[in-house]
Specification:
The protein has eight helices and no strands. It is mainly alpha-helical. The longest helix is centred in the N-terminal third of the chain and has 36 residues. The chain starts with a helix and ends in a 13-residue tail after the last helix.
Length: about 270
């Protein structure tokens, strides 16, 4: 692809992302205004700050990957994000709104307010399957969508479990699930920096399913009706296979555990 034909769709993508970013920010400001009227200005401002910070993080993660907005089988850069990627960003919007409640713990006085983070993150978790389905249905599957989806899954599995821990619904040790992805990525960067071999992971449906189970678990325990005496031990049961999967994957990419046909270094 020539430089001129690359710059044009990239500029269009940046404009589209900027518009979505502005629209999301306006929505958050309106929601903060509503929370201020419903609860208090202090509550609204404490919710808004981490929400906008997280929304900025989501937009930045998308911006730095815009060059991946092409089909897995074609390197031609698409000039629009497509419905699938837009839905993925909508999931990021929901996760950002959930993040705002990290700074409001203990401030809620209205009985329905504790249900809001549960509603927001449950919608984000349910949307995890929808964005990919829409992208495949409309033949808009892109490398950007794959990476952004994984990144937002990991972001949500930091924010929502931390909120569940603050609410007393999960043991703090469950946060190992939250940091496992980032430790794995850091380990890959470390190996590249020191020119150590990195072996490819074999395809695994279980890997994706385990991540989906974690999102489902956390979305469930955030609901106020779920008792802590039940959610805490269940969280441990879900945590163990997830961490075991990360350990196994690390042994594979580092060459300590070989699988059939997995000899090629990345």
């Amino acid at each position: 692809m020539s430089r001129s034909t690359y710059r044009q769709p990239l500029s269009a993508l940046r404009r589209e992302l900027k518009q979505l970013g502005i629209q999301g920010t306006i929505l958050f400001l309106l929601l903060a205004l509503g929370l201020g009227m419903l609860e208090s200005p202090v509550f609204a401002s404490r919710w808004l700050i981490p929400t906008l910070f997280c929304w900025g993080f989501v937009l930045w993660q998308c911006l730095r990957r815009l060059h991946l907005n092409h089909s897995p089988t074609d390197d031609k850069l698409l000039s629009t994000l497509g419905t699938g990627n837009q839905l993925t960003l909508a999931r990021g919007l929901l996760i950002a709104a959930t993040a705002g409640f990290l700074a409001t713990t203990g401030l809620q006085t209205r009985p329905l307010l504790p249900y809001l983070p549960a509603i927001l993150y449950t919608a984000a978790a349910l949307g995890d399957a929808l964005d990919g389905y829409i992208a495949r249905k409309r033949q808009q599957v892109t490398e950007l969508g794959k990476e952004l989806d994984t990144t937002l899954d990991a972001t949500g599995l930091v924010i929502a479990p931390l909120l569940a821990v603050l609410y007393g619904k999960l043991f703090p040790i469950y946060l190992l699930v939250s940091v496992a992805y980032y430790l794995f990525q850091w380990g890959l960067l470390w190996r590249r920096r020191f020119n150590k071999p990195i072996y490819s992971l074999p395809p695994s449906r279980l890997r994706r399913q385990l991540a989906g189970y974690q999102m489902g678990l956390v979305a469930t325990v955030l609901w106020p009706l779920i008792p802590a005496f039940l959610s805490r031990p269940v969280g441990i049961l879900f945590m163990v296979p997830m961490l075991a999967g990360f350990i196994r994957d690390w042994l594979i990419v580092s060459g300590r555990l070989r699988t059939h046909g997995d000899q090629q270094s990345l």
